[in-house]
Write a structure and sequence with these properties.
The chain is mainly α. It contains 9 helices and no strands. It folds into 2 domains: 48 residues, Orthogonal Bundle (Arc Repressor Mutant, subunit A), CATH 1.10.10; 139 residues, Tetracycline Repressor, domain 2, CATH 1.10.357.
Amino acid sequence: MTKKHTAKERILNTASELFHARGYKEVGINEIIEKSGTAKATFYSNFPSKEMLGKAWLQQIHDLSETQRASLLEEIDDPLLILENYFKGLEKFLKQGQFRGCPYTNTAAVLNHEESVLQAQVHEHKKAIRKFFRHLAKLSYKETKAANTLGDRIFLLYSGATTECQNLQTTWPVRVALDASRELWRAHTS
């Protein structure tokens, strides 16, 4: 027996699919209401605005990312192996998502100053990824400043690879960024 989704879950699932496929700005509330099979009043009782729906969507992605990072740290002892697995996960994510790229970067690119709640969420998510790379570096390189520098460099390689995979519709940038990250890692930790 399949679980019947609540109206809130249907709205969020529908919005997630549409936002992923076309982007946050390109999807309207009326389309989400229609495709989720809910009434307008039901939509607004669950999400007072499109921005609040966008926030729930981004939070859902962030929570999944946090779980993935925590699992890697819990399951693997070698920080370099964790790094490699994280990049391989990015490659898989990009392929499965048909090279739509990072939902946070895509959303940030179209926000205006009125959507500060979403902008704050983008910043928090990016800070969490940066913190993850810094943490990995600290596991192998005890000097904090140098470990932070290494983590920041890898964060930028990761972010750049994500963007270029989306631009070029291919995964080779992830593999090149991983190779460059390994070289940086070995240079800093040897």
